[in-house]
Write a structure and sequence with these properties.
Elements: H1 3-7, E1 10-15, H2 23-36, E2 40-44, H3 47-52, E3 56-58, H4 86-98, E4 103-108, H5 110-121, E5 125-130, H6 146-167, E6 170-175, H7 182-190, E7 195-197, H8 206-218, E8 224-229, H9 235-246, E9 250-254, H10 266-284, E10 290-295, E11 298-303, H11 304-309, H12 316-326
Parallel strand pairs: 1-2, 1-4, 4-5, 5-10, 6-8, 6-9, 7-8
Antiparallel strand pairs: 2-3, 10-11
């Protein structure tokens, strides 16, 4: 056992930002791994807000029993504007020192990582775990909750397609993703959508969608599915305009926060568990300012500053596949050209 290992006696764990299925599996893994290594663990409620308000509790193995299958987060979560202020950051660090928390595991997205980054600069060892349904953290190919969320959305879209087909309608189905279109992209492929609108590259040329619907009807297509990302939005008004232009009954369905809930898939349970254990192991090894990720088939850790500096866009090859499968509007909406590096 190294000297760094002996220094870590107490750690904390919190969830911050939007909830994601699988967060409880990560919390459970952090707690049980830490206890197994002889550490004391505090669960911090309601993210950074709870850290500032000293809303925390020492956790036992029993406290996280029967949680791995549950959606949401048993530690609750909140967005904390005060954590962006020097005063809030100071209070959060003071709470860690008051309770002897030498290491902190932060489960959340890049906004949560920025809070962790600040605490690290104030002397608190921190490790981040990617928990977000948006799959928008650049250093990792997997984020906790995405697999469950995309399957939840896929199943809902299948049901909407059934009724859309029966009534020979156009359906615009809005999935979550304010700044990231991976949920929309994957649902577009998985559900066989005719059009996929992503915040990264939608050019707001509705006439192309209208032309695509008209052309499809001429070829005998009796229904039409459009997957629309939250970041594009305006699904209801878009539906009215499309119906007026095409004469085809058009309905908008916004799936909303149902995509955040539900029992996590096996992948989200297993990957979250591995990431939770890895975060504890990193802290025990004396590491800080790290982010746990999954890349090239391996669980790895990355420098938090580098992780936050990375930019993640839609993979051009995946997008090209989506457009090739749909044969619709997306095909002419500016998909990036492929090159040898992409392939």
């Amino acid at each position: 056992m190294s000297s760094a290992t002996k220094e870590i006696k107490t750690i904390g764990v919190l969830t911050s930002g939007g909830d994601a299925p699988g967060m409880n599996a990560a919390i459970r893994a952090v707690v049980r791994r830490a206890l197994g290594k002889g550490l004391k663990v505090y669960g911090i409620y309601r993210g950074y807000d709870g850290l500032m308000e000293e809303d925390l509790k020492e956790l036992s193995a029993q406290d996280v029993s029967d949680t791995i299958q549950k959606g949401g987060t048993v530690l609750y979560t909140a967005r904390c504007a005060e954590m962006r202020t020097p005063e809030g950051q100071k209070r959060a660090a003071e709470t860690c020192r008051k309770y002897g928390i030498e290491g902190l595991v932060v489960i959340g997205g890049d906004g949560s990582y920025r809070g962790a980054q600040v605490l690290a600069h104030q002397g608190i060892n921190v490790v981040g775990i990617p928990g977000t349904i948006d799959l928008d953290i650049s250093c990792t190919e997997y984020t906790i909750g995405f697999d469950t969320s995309v399957n939840t959305a896929m199943e809902a879209i299948d049901k909407v397609r059934d009724t859309s087909t029966s009534h020979e309608r156009c359906s615009i189905i809005e999935v979550m993703g304010r700044n990231a279109g991976y949920l929309a992209l994957w649902c577009g492929i998985a559900n066989g959508a005719e059009d996929i609108l992503l915040p990264e590259n939608y050019d707001y040329d509705e006439q192309r969608i209208i032309d695509n619907i008209i052309d499809s009807r001429r070829r005998g297509k009796k229904h039409h599915i459009i997957i629309n990302a939250e970041g594009v939005g305006h699904s209801a008004s878009m539906a009215r305009r499309i119906e007026a232009a095409t004469g085809m009954e058009t309905r908008a369905t916004i799936l909303g926060h149902m995509q955040r809930g539900g029992s996590p898939t096996a992948k989200d349970r297993v990957y979250a568990s591995i990431m939770g254990c890895m975060a504890v192991d990193l802290l025990i090894a004396g590491k800080s300012e790290r982010v746990v990720g999954y890349k090239n088939g391996k669980f790895q850790d990355f420098d938090i500053d580098e992780a936050l500096a990375m930019v993640k866009g839609i993979d051009p090859y995946q997008y090209e596949i989506a457009t090739a499968m749909s044969g619709g509007y997306s095909k002419t909406s500016g998909a990036k050209a492929l090159n040898d590096e992409t392939l």
